[in-house]
Design a protein that fits this description.
single chain, 391 residues, alpha/beta, 6-stranded mixed β-sheet
């Protein structure tokens, strides 16, 4: 009979053999739910390749499995095996050290870790302590172990993984978004914004409005194609919400109405760019997201964003005309003085000088035309003859 003891929530911590423990195919750290892995071998490979296990391997080989760090697993009705929902990296490391068939593609790691395990006197790895959650157990139990551990503590998941997990809790349990937020001590509506961003980006991908593979901006963690945190940061701005037609209601799947899907595309392309269209991101970094949201509130600026203009370009052409003219003229003066110095200090071939003189004359004509245009504003009664083309 397996050793069992209840933890302080009433859930049972059991000593379970490694062979009965399954890696979780719905691990929120895997990113897009449509990209799930089907077999235990594939899941282990992805954990190793994406998140790494070297630190865990070394710790297990030298110290064995710490009893105070139980895995958390779900028991499915009618099945003997348990699916691990917390501690998949640790389980993957155990499988590698024990040369489990699921670690077939990691023989080099198995060989090195088993050598260290042997040198350390084979500290216990199998069986391991597991906090077992029964199928019908209250969802707040898993909230207390995963939510507090990975969303509100020192062992955080990245933002997409958090959002994916929150969506799963809301969809698979009787808990509301508000109850999840309350359980996690969220007072800033971060839980709601992350969930809304998760629903939004999935809707845009499902409807073909956004292809993550074409994003110019890269992300980290579960989703490396684009920075997911930018989405829920932008959704905190009322101007962006108005452009997207988002209400202040609780987040729900497919938050955009059909007529706002293209607006959603406008926003993500402006943030992340689109390699297939040769479009760069309209912002330099996340500090410009507030300015980007406000730009979408101005129809003229929104059109320039859709036309592929960067936020810097839009701000430049949107500045008052007198400031733009003053700065431009000052730049011309500075450049002109520098060029006069070059002519005074350098010897020029006669042929080159003639070509450059023709260019300088064209510059002079433009300057005369600018003087004429400005004079019409400064003194409309003054009539200025147009520049002579033969000047």
């Amino acid at each position: 009979m397996m050793d069992k003891e209840a933890d302080n929530t009433g859930a049972m911590v059991e000593s379970q053999p490694i062979e009965r423990l399954l890696l979780d195919p719905d691990n929120p750290r895997f990113g897009n739910p449509s990209d799930q892995q089907s077999s235990q071998v594939q899941i282990l490979d992805r954990i190793v390749d994406t998140f790494g296990v070297e630190d865990v391997l070394n710790s297990l080989a030298v110290n064995g499995y710490f009893p105070a760090e139980p895995l958390v697993a779900k028991r499915i009705d009618g099945e003997d095996d348990l699916t691990v929902v917390e501690g998949n990296r640790r389980l993957a490391a155990c499988l590698i050290i024990l040369d489990d068939p699921r670690a077939v593609h990691h023989q080099a790691k198995t060989k090195n870790s088993r050598k260290l395990w042997e040198e350390s006197g084979f500290p216990q790895i199998d069986p391991v302590p597991v906090l077992v959650l029964d199928a019908g157990q209250d969802s707040t139990t898993i909230l207390s172990y995963l939510g507090v551990r990975h969303i509100a503590s020192t062992r955080p998941w990245d933002s997409y993984a958090k959002a994916a997990w929150i969506a799963k809790v809301v969809e698979d349990s009787s808990l509301s978004v508000d109850q999840v937020a309350e359980s996690l001590g969220d007072r800033s509506r971060l839980v709601a914004r992350m969930l809304e961003a998760y629903y939004l980006i999935n809707q845009l991908q499902d409807t073909g409005q956004f292809d993550a593979a074409e994003s110019v901006r890269s992300g980290r963690g579960s989703v490396t194609e684009y920075p997911f945190s930018w989405i829920y940061t932008l959704l905190g701005n009322l101007a962006a919400r108005d452009y997207l037609g988002l209400s202040v209601q609780r987040p729900e799947p497919n938050p955009l109405s059909k007529d706002k899907l293209k607006c959603g595309r406008d926003v993500v392309v402006a943030m992340f760019g689109d390699k297939s269209q040769g479009r760069s991101s309209a912002v330099r970094d996340s500090r410009q997201l507030g300015d980007l949201a406000r730009a979408f509130a101005d129809p003229r600026k929104a059109k320039m964003l859709r036309d592929g203009k960067s936020l810097d370009e839009i701000e430049l052409v949107s500045r008052p005309a007198d400031i733009r003219l003053s700065e431009g003229l000052e730049n011309i003066l500075t450049t002109g003085r520098e060029l006069i110095g070059v002519v005074a200090e350098e010897e020029l071939r006669q042929e080159s000088a003639r070509v450059l003189e023709a260019q300088a004359v064209r510059v002079l004509r433009v300057a005369q035309a600018l003087v004429t245009a400005l004079r019409r504003h400064s003194d409309p009664l003054v009539v200025q003859d147009p520049p002579d083309d033969n000047t």
